[in-house]
Write a structure and sequence with these properties.
homodimer, alpha+beta, L-amino peptidase D-ALA esterase/amidase, Ubiquitin-like (UB roll), 2 domains, 6-stranded mixed β-sheet, 5-stranded mixed β-sheet, 10 helices, 15 strands, L-glutamate N-acetyltransferase activity (chains A, B), EC 2.3.1.35 (chains A, B)
Amino acid sequence: MSVTAPQGFRAAGVVAGLKNSGARDVALVVNDGPSRAAAAVFTRNRVKAAPVIWSEQVIKGGSVRAVVLNSGGANACTGPDGFQDTHATAEKTAELLEESAGEIIVCSTGLIGERLPMDKLLPGVAAAAAELSRTGGGLAAADAIRTTDTVAKIAFRQGTGGYMIGAMAKGAGMLAPSLATMLSVVTTDADLPAGTLDRALRSATAVTLDRLDSDGAMSTNDTVLLMASGASGVTPDEAEFTALLTEVCNDLTRQLLVDAEGASKAIAIEVVGAANDFDAVTVGRAVARNNLLKCAIHGEDPNWGRVLAAVGTTEAVFDPDQLNVAINGVWVCRDGSFGDDRDKVDLRPRDVTITVDLSAGPNSATVWTTDLTADYVHENSAYST
Amino acid sequence: MSVTAPQGFRAAGVVAGLKNSGARDVALVVNDGPSRAAAAVFTRNRVKAAPVIWSEQVIKGGSVRAVVLNSGGANACTGPDGFQDTHATAEKTAELLEESAGEIIVCSTGLIGERLPMDKLLPGVAAAAAELSRTGGGLAAADAIRTTDTVAKIAFRQGTGGYMIGAMAKGAGMLAPSLATMLSVVTTDADLPAGTLDRALRSATAVTLDRLDSDGAMSTNDTVLLMASGASGVTPDEAEFTALLTEVCNDLTRQLLVDAEGASKAIAIEVVGAANDFDAVTVGRAVARNNLLKCAIHGEDPNWGRVLAAVGTTEAVFDPDQLNVAINGVWVCRDGSFGDDRDKVDLRPRDVTITVDLSAGPNSATVWTTDLTADYVHENSAYST
């Protein structure tokens, strides 16, 4: 189902030849309306890929007819020529749909620093336009945006009154705040204006996709796009829509986490007792990025000292003598010192929960990360060769 | 020669039984004067080990008679009882030297979150005091502070007029800003007051030990101590002394870099063209901490896109379209896009230099790091078991 679960959308995924593997590498998702309201969030990296620079302008209009996506090349750090390639891709898509290029979002993913083979990409876009469908197209599109993802990621939910939200995402390494190396397209047939979609998307991604930090690296290409066709005729309550969208984004986040490059553990870092939300997220990220801790979890070693060492690098409000840490429910650190017997911690399951209690207030946040493994090193030391 | 290269110092390193391996694990370095002027810098981690909390108070007096160091346990996150253990260690050392505990610095390194076996440590301190010597003691002390270090690290230099600076250090993983998992004792027989030593030490470590970032993790125990005996009778010019001290610290930094856990590459990140020093160091650290880049260098892949992606996460002054990057002298990125042929980059040597030109000003800084390897993962996933 994916992005074509809601009414009013068609999609396609085709082989254009950008990937040496011969796998699908160009996807197209078209909104047939009646509404074209849309919102998007992008990477916060200051080094932005050409498609991000383009799409940031497009989304300002609040109206999107289609998104064209390619894997097999990020089109980042490619200079003015690379930007022209993005422009040409949007123009080609617009021409095929008999639209203005100003309503075409472009997304790219793959290696940074190389031009896209336009002689393959543009025919691929035409092929995708010819194959647009509601049945099958959604899954093919989700497949076409994969890079090192081992599986396609899709999600959908139905809301009150029968409107739908559908989604696809890709992302395996370089998952970090600001949605790194992540492309995601979310569709809905709810009838909502762009301003509401923007608020809902920012709210939903802030507590889901933006809290996934697999390796602390931030990508140049991240884009999460939300398009609404209005085809269901339902205008849901904003709070209800936001909650359902958050569920969909949470589902995608979980899939990205489990499929992160080389990971053998899915780690939730729950920070509680924080003085404010910012502190909770900051501490969560600091723990999530600690390579030594990530190695320890890989070795199934409940090395809570590394958690405290990570917490101590932040400016969050806490007293070192009042920090508590639980690993998979066992409070191995109490009041900044050793607590319950660390031998009671069972780290064999894939899911690991590290709870950090700052004892400084009522706020909390969860950040997700993975363990650091030899497989991660292998996969990322041979990526571009 | 190590810390006993300068006149006025004796040292020892003994087996107290803290390490299961049976290797040396307690070291003592004593300043026999006539001066006892001293200065120190410590970790900036807010979760500080008991010996750091103790020693921060001692150094305020500007006078240090001796430093007692142990490997085999960090005495961090051990609560009030752990602090009493540090206090007892200082008292025992003071008693053996017939001194005040208020002039005894204590350093510990090893696993966080476990009490030290005081029934072994205190007899070890007594054994070390009985073995203090100028010949042999310096090397034994350098050996005794090793944890996962494969070799003992020592350095010494002679200054104008014949005064000496000697040093020992340990540190293998968790090397990060704020001197992580690093213990270093530097001695000199120059005759300088504590205030001068403090300025010189801060200046020297800021551009050497503090710019080594092997894995972004910050330790709870880092201490760099400088003790001056005045025994040479020479009072060097402050600038000259600072320069010589910087040389010694640079020598130690290089040794720590080459011996970092699991590393196969020693990477210098030279940031040039920065608007100010802060920007230069910030960008250097961001690049040094990028796991994806560290994996690429391990794979001998000149993946400059990952350099730009790391630079783009900072708030430094730069225009993405004016960034230049050289890897081992080949300018693979010019004006934010691809430059010279990346196939010209030879990444086979152990030493790798990544030059980032921000094109934003006249300032520069160098930060050192290592590659990310499967060996690093293996070593750190089994450390505490």
